[in-house]
Amino acid sequence: MRTEVLDATTPATTTPVTTNPRGDVAQMLMDRLGDEHLGLRTRTRDWTWDEVVRESATRGALAQSLRRPGPFHIGVLLENTPEFTFWLGGAALTGATIVGINPTRRGKELEAEVRYVDCQLIVTDSAGREKLADLDLGLTDDRFVLVDDASYVDSMAGHVTEPQVADGVDASTLFLLLFTSGTTGMSKAVRCSQGRITRLAYANCAKYDIDRDDVCYCCMPLFHGNALMGLWAPALSAGATVCLVPKFTASGFMPDVRYYGATYFTYVGKALGYLMSTEESPGDADNTLTHGFGTEASPGDKTEFSRRFGAKLYEAYGSSEGAGSIRLDPAAPTAALGRPANENIVIVDPETLEECPRAVLDEYGRVLNSDEAIGEMIDKAGAGRFEGYYKNESAVAERIRHGWYWTGDLGYVDEAGFIYFAGRKGDWIRVDSENTSALMIEHVLRRHPKVISTGVFAVPDPRSGDRVMAAVEVADHSDFDPEEFAVYLAAQADLGTKAAPRFIRVSTSLPVTGSNKVLKRALQTEGWRCDEPVYHWVGRGAPVYTLMTDADRDALEKEFDEHGRTRFL
Length: 569
Description:
This protein has 569 residues and is an alpha/beta fold. The chain folds into 3 domains: 25-247, Rossmann fold, CATH 3.40.50.980; 334-424, Roll (Luciferase, domain 3); 428-568, ANL, C-terminal domain (GMP Synthetase, Chain A, domain 3), CATH 3.30.300.30. It has a 7-stranded mixed beta sheet with strand order 2-1-10-9-11-12-13, sandwiched between helices. β3 (73-77), α3 (82-94) and β4 (97-100) form a beta-alpha-beta unit. α1 crosses α3 and α2 crosses α3 (82-94). It is globular. It starts with 24 loop residues before the first helix and ends in a 7-residue tail after the last helix. The model is unreliable at 1-18 and 181-185 (pLDDT under 50).
């Protein structure tokens, strides 16, 4: 399929012509000026690409009028609404930087993240403003733009302007600060220039088969790189249609697809798992989807999705910091990511810096020589492509060592040359494709009056990513009341929605290191198979903990086998 854009020297028409790729997001937007193809759709209104560009220019003009000295950073705390995309466009045209604020963050964690990235303006709505109300962000009330306030419409009317690119905006202009997580326990913000996002836009159109005729269903959050890099930017570069829903729901997915006539979508593994948990219908394959892109889905879910809904899925590996490490290969085993993109993508032993030997797999795909074969995935040539973290040089130094880019992810390569993901380093837990800090969860648990000590760590999810497990030390097992503990967790304002433990091990003597730190490595190895009581929470909604039985353990581990993830146990 081909990518079509409009050359800036060519008069605007309803059918853009093919030309060389642009160097920055601003010029990609200007290519859409005069384009009457549908650019953005919701359930209540449609916009042509020309209208999208003009709406973006208006937001950019408003931002310019509110600009103060210092970094031109605009925080956006919104669900997937047209306003989010218009502010993305407005920032691109004016040279501002968008900071997507994660609405699942809470309390001091949220406060620290917003302050860290130096937002001088926050675009949100009434619900978002209420969430931020008790936080000390260093901003006065006039630095908040509420898109659902009556005065906002008047502000827009006063800033209608002819779209143009501000002086100095080019490929090097900082466009996004994307929050990610590292091994230090501190949030980090990845620097993404307009040039990087533009290169990804064109590359992903080619890699994931996106062209102007595609109708791109955006159900993943726009504060996340999945939606921005895998859908919004490619759709902009190709002039495809973007269809927005506020957030993903399994029950609403297929009705939305049919309503919009969607052909393409992006996903994360847990969302795909929720979809596959819905009741199968004889009419599932009666839809317009042809393909999708995502990460961290279980092999079983990918296979079943294609069978039920008839769409091809492009599963890939990437991160906010860098991408392009993996080359897709149709011949890859179901559990593999693909092949290393080039000879610079290797798995090494972090201590010896030597390349790890090839993994030997048994008939179930389990690694028989894991101690030797599993190491950290690195890119020997990736240092030049990594644009760094905002105000965190120590974290940059951790990523760039010996002239190599270290992903922080574990992996292995089998004897046929296929590469596999084997988990994440450090003290971060990957839940629903979002990183959650074990340290922050420990702080919450430790506040409970009966908890003497605690360790929080990741255990694998049978479908995708991780689940949160906590080990708590109490004076006596009778001091732990699962109902009371669940009520306590639900009342903690700084416990994110994805951070409540799914498993709680109750101990009267947690293992410790020589310096009296909880030995989480040993706890993680045992997981829910230990000789102490383990309570688990199944389902969604508020936590409800019940004592785990041997039958419960067997049933859970059977799920790993069903979804091709036994190797993670």
